[in-house]
Amino acid sequence: MSSGEPTLRGRTAVVTGGGRGIGRAIALGLAAEGATVAVVSRTKEELDAVVAEAKERGGDGIALVVDCTDGPALKRAVAEAHGGAGLDILVNNVGGLIGEPGKLAALDHDDELFERNLFLNLTSAYYATRAALPRMVDGGYGRVISIGSGYATHGGGTISYSAAKHGLVGLTRALAYQVPAEITVNCLCPGWTNTAVLDWNGPEGRAGAEAKAAVHTVQGRVLEPEELAPMAVLLAGPDGAGITGQTISVDGGYKV
Q1: What are the CA-CA distances from residue 63 to residues 3, 36, 52, 193 (Å)?
Q2: Helix (H/G/I), strand (E/B), else coil: 189
Q3: Contacts with 38 (C-beta within 8 Å, 6 or more apart), sequence order
Q4: pLDDT at 83 over 50
Q5: Which residues pair with 89 in a beta bridge?
Q6: CA 75, 80, 84: angle at the middle one, nearest 5?
Q7: What is the mean pLDDT of residues 12-24?
Q8: What would you report as the CA-atom Rg of the chain, rounded to the nearest whole angstrom?
Q9: Which domains does the chain have, with CATH numbers?
Q10: Looking at per-residue confidence, does 100 or 22 come out higher?
Q11: Is 196 a residue whose pLDDT tops 90?
Q12: Is 94 left (phi over 0), alpha (psi -120 to 50) or beta?
């Protein structure tokens, strides 16, 4: 870092859900440090915009249009990204909430929506990681970063979302013990962050999130997605080699 040289020059990355929000911010952060980043989501226009900006920042980008709720398709995309050559960094970012609020309450939770939310927020990370790990082992370098939530370490969210995000912490800890030492596995947890998730419950949802952030965080504010990128870059690079199996929060001090 002190030399001013990009820390990720020559490294390749995959960021799921990379077209907007936290995924976009992390993808651009990695690109600014010289990485070639494959961004994965369903919306080509968003991906193309991220790729263009990645190139402007000194890295490179590839758009992969994939439905991340299709496990086999996601697994193939990660396995074949960057031509199937080395893969150094995987960011399991895709996630969010599926369904109307009234169908996600504990006493009225829709069964199908439980399964869909679990897949989006947890099982997708399994599929992507399963495809990435052999490539990391072959290359002798690997960084797996899963994006959790304040609800990965606390209660308060919908039961499907919270169960999935808690599951990411378990997945992280289990994997950290089972991969070679040159591969690190961590869970990066945002709190209230200015993304589309805040609009899930309409204007009331955003206002409610801002009110909760004011009460439940030390800093009393909603963070911007770009504030997650520096920690992700650290975990992805050589300076993060000694950090593994950890759940790290960048959340303005959520419920400390």
Answers
A1: 31, 11, 10, 24
A2: strand
A3: 12, 13, 14, 15, 18, 61, 62, 63, 64, 81, 82
A4: yes
A5: 13, 143
A6: 135
A7: 98
A8: 17
A9: 12-190+228-247 (3.40.50.720), 198-225 (no CATH)
A10: 22
A11: no
A12: beta
The pTM of this model reads 0.95
Tell me what pLDDT residue 2 has.
41
Question: Which range among 51-55, 166-170, 207-211 shows the weakest confidence by mean pLDDT?
Answer: 207-211
Q: Which of 126, 127, 141, 161 is catalytic?
A: 161
3-state secondary structure (DSSP) of residue 193: strand
State the virtual CA torsion across 226, 227, 230, 231 in degrees, nearest 10: -130
Rounded average pLDDT over 196-206: 76
* The two three-digit tokens of residue 110, written as one number: 């829709």
- Least confident range of 58-67, 132-141, 203-212: 203-212
- Whole-number Å distance between alpha carbons of 228 and 26: 7
Burial class of residue 137, CB neighbours in 10 A (0-12, 13-18, 19+): middle
The phi, psi pair for 253, rounded to 5°, reads 85, 55
Give the residue ranges of DSSP H helices in 58-158: 71-80, 111-118, 124-139
Distance of CA 141 to the CA centre of its chain: 19
pLDDT in tens, 163-193: 999 999 999 999 999 999 999 999 999 999 9
**Alpha carbons 84 and 217: distance in angstroms, whole number:** 42
Respond yes or no: is residue 126 known to be catalytic: no
